[in-house]
Amino acid sequence: MAVKSVVLAAGAGTRMKSTRPKVIHDLAGLPLLRWVLDAIASIDLDEVVVVVGHRAEEVEKILPEGVVSRLQDRQLGTGHAVQAGLTGMEIGGHSILVLPGDMPLLTESTISELLSVHQASAAAATVLTAEIKNSDFGRILRNDGGDLVQIVEARDADPDQAAVQEVNGGVYVFDGSLLEAALDDLTTENSQGEYYLTDVIGILARSGHRLGTVTTDSVELTGVNSHQQLAAAADLVRRRINDKWMSEGVWMQDPERTYIGARVRLAPGVRLFPDVHLEGTTEVGEDSQLGPDVYALDTRIGAGSRVWYSVMRGSSVGDGAEVGPYASLRPGSVLEARSKLGTFVETKNTRLGEGAKVPHLAYMGDADIGAGANVGAGSITCNYDGVSKYPTKIGEGAFIGSDTMLVAPVTVGDDAFTGAGSVITHDVSPGALAVERSEQKEIRGYSARVEARKKKKRQGE
Known about the structure:
By secondary structure, this protein is α/β, with parallel strands linked by helices.
């Protein structure tokens, strides 16, 4: 069956009270619209068109390669939106799959079933439905023989029609030529004064065409028109994602407090403690433990690593490495195997070699730290002079004493040492000890002199 698709994404989403189009609001790391587009991505479709309108350029930026847009310059209803989507499309011999762009829980399997039923029945249209009580969805109306004859919008339904629990999901497959002709017969004689796509069903039924339905779980019809509904959808998506990963061997102490983005990848044996947030393209290797309280964005974490109470962005953590507690890895941070980045340590554009350690209270920026090196507490790389940034290189096996200031650009050689409290402004030779301190002085009786000054000041007041 040759199929083309029209996805409706032109609405402003006024109930969101947001300057952004509704369909680009984030849900588990993807815009709402991308959830719908991803659900149909593996289906063999000849063409996918997204109908845009409100702030169209922002919606177009998130469209994947191969998906085109059509502008609905005025929002005159769903029927008008489909007409805009069909503009310039070769329809003859094609079925047209129509979906809303704000239904993130719709699955590929349900859409495939809808297409299969439509093809097998040779219907003019096949509609996705569900059983829902007291909803604001359009009602499915059938004749005495059980045939679909009309869809009536909830706001236009009389009391008997409103009591019907079978509702329209807003997902359809149409015979393309019949759809195109029926759209020309739409009117705006309804409470909204709009061209309803649902009225096409009645037009086709009155013309004697066969119509079909496929019933799905009501959860799949979860739409998003407000921030409350967005939060509810996010909860359902999170449960679906977490269930998937647990079925693939990931342990979660509390799935209700575990947040995993749609593009995240986890290996079997990963252990996740509460309040872990994994976003973007983050990957976690086998048997690693994350949490409590970890945020990782676009970060690779190797097998057997331990990360807790830490933030990582655009970083890489090697196998068997340890991060935290309270560490911050900024973009460009690379920790090689079995390295350690400890308590209250921040890194940026820095590499820790295999087995290297920065255990606590340090800042390493634009640094290359050799294998087996140890950086003492309170040490920092002074990598920025207010104009430019400069590199620091610490050799393999080097020992950086506590509270060392490494003024870049500077190199500390392999197996070299720096004395605690030193300000290192020149390169340190391999195996050498560099100490930079002024001679300690002691001023006896200093506290008495301070008290005398205080007494004099009080007497003068």
